[in-house]
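agent: user wants the full assembly modeled, not chains individually. Plan: 1) parse entity lines 2) check alphabet per entity 3) run joint structure prediction 4) return tokens. Steps 1-2 passed, two entities, 693 residues total. Proceeding.
--- entities ---
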Amino acid sequence: MSAELGAWGVPLAVAAGAIRVSTPFIFVSLGECITERSGRVNLGLEGTLVMGAMVGYGTSYLSGSPWLGVFAAGLVGALLGGVHGVLCSRPRVNDIAVGIGLMLFGSGLAFFLGKPLIQPSAPRLPAIPFGFWSHTPQVEDALRVNVLFILGVLLAPAVSFALRRTRWGLIVRTVGESSDAARAMGYDVNRVRTLATMAGGFLAGIGGSFLSLFYPGSWNEGLSSGQGLMAVALVIFARWNPIRCLYASLLFGGASALGPALQAVGVTSGYYLFNAAPYALTLLIMVLSSSATRTSADQPAELTVAR
Amino acid sequence: MPTSPARASALAPKALVDPESESARGGRLLRRAEPLIISLGALCGALLIFGLFLACDGLNPLDVYAAMFRGAFGTWFSFQNTLQRSAPLMLTALCTALPAQLGLVVIGGEGALVVGGVAAAVAGLAVSSSSPYTVLTVMLLAGAFAGGVWIALVGALRAYRGVNETISSLLLAYIAIALMNHLVEGPLRDPSSLNKPATRHIGEVNMLGAMPGLDVHWGLFYGVVACLAGWVLMKRTVFGFAAAMTGGNLRAALLSGLRVKRLMVFTCFLAGAAAGVAGMVEVAAVHGRANASLVAGYGYTGILVAFVARQNPLGVIPVALLLGGIGASGGLLQRNFNLPDASVNVLQGILFMVILASETLYGRLDVWSFARRANAAKAVSLRVAA
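--- prediction returned ---
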């Protein structure tokens, strides 16, 4: 099947992967971007992602509507975000540690409640066939674009606009840059941060529902392998800018598709090594974009993640 | 309170938080007992929440807890199972607890365990014709060294490039697992391992045996010794004092001329070495070969152990026993109550969250002096107003 495309199959598959695999990255990184702009880090989005995938799948199975599943996944994400937000509002509670806790708790709870969902098959999200003009099956397949991907692409400029040009965005950024200034202006810092964490959790939950309702498109325990965590790292790489989060997500989606793409054209020797590509890429990017001596000017001043 | 209390306080040793808060004699005793009271309270709180969870599932929580206790500590057999499981937990917990003394949050114990296990298997196979004693020594050193280098990389990236250690350590864990899969599928694969690719077996004679009088392998001894050594190093030596100083106040440590970067890298090396030994123990005492069974979640439970023990290497020992017991009872829950195997993870997750939330209670337990302090503050403000 890949014979007619030959080696061109690889870049095509990577591009297709960039579209297909990147969607959860887009949602999680945009969500984390909002949270981090308010001055907190939620490392638990990995758990939120898995939980969102489970709830989205379950709701879609029970109600027959995948969109209801997406919404339910978002709500559960917001709930987990709320737990993180409220716990971190207590004095002396460390947001990174709570994030680690939430990561373990979210995945554990999803596996616990999702046990009966491994067998049944739920209605999936529809895709729009943009590739109708082509007769090459790979191209057609690559251009079967999910609506959530389009939503995610539109969401990036929307979040960017909201952060820069709206009153809400200004409040979030003020809280993230100087909690003292925000307090002096009469804003409840912890409340703003909790709400920002809930918004981030909502988006991460939606990202999770994409995993179970579109690609790979079923619920099992190995569904997410660190995408949530990589998305958090990606926000640092994107220097807390929603538009750059979008580009970075596309890059990561492509990197994740590299292993399967090479396998499809017959390069099988380093399959497992290529599976490590997205993690290695994340690490490399973090090494290149960090500095021991100065902090990035774009970094919210209240943030502890990249001290 | 001084201006920015929230920052690093979750990791700061208790003694540094408020040294001159109270003069009360009773307060001192209470402050000694404080971590114990709060941790036990948090454990009860977590059991309560998990109990509600079980009740929603239509089970009697007390029945489940009784079964868990029997499954973990009830019989000599189950207790030995618990001991066996707690050994790798002690070692992986050190992987988080030692860097925490410097204020670093390293959560990549799983990766160091895997790397250590693979390195130990490779080294053991390379010298497998020697005496068992030599084989095990070589395996131990190889596992410790490989795991140490793995986490030292995290420390070096943090010290010299400012890369966030929490994220990089977890990414390296995923890379370690992919690397192991690559090696056992390809270059190191034993042709006879069909369904589950693995390295060749290190040989039955070379396996790490049981301790005298027990049915528990020597890994437990390694774990306890490592925890004791970690405690002595961190609480009773100049090195440990330098580490605590760095964790308490980085700027003060730099100003007093401590070599903070080296300290970070070396502490991370020791931390990774501990987790690497856990991998070596899993290979040498349990599986006999390196394969995907190494990825059993010991690294992640180790993080929880370290946090529950409040990053105290000595506290790691009892907490690892407790969580090893919870893990050991998982099978029983599955069989007797038809609970999914993930229920242990749920309980661990709840315990983790409650323990972190209980952090906020420190310094407030002493109700009397807390009230007295509030009164004193009121008196001062009244005087200022007048």
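agent: reporting back. Chain B touches chain A through 50 residues (CB under 8 Å). The two ends of chain B are 23 Å apart (CA to CA).
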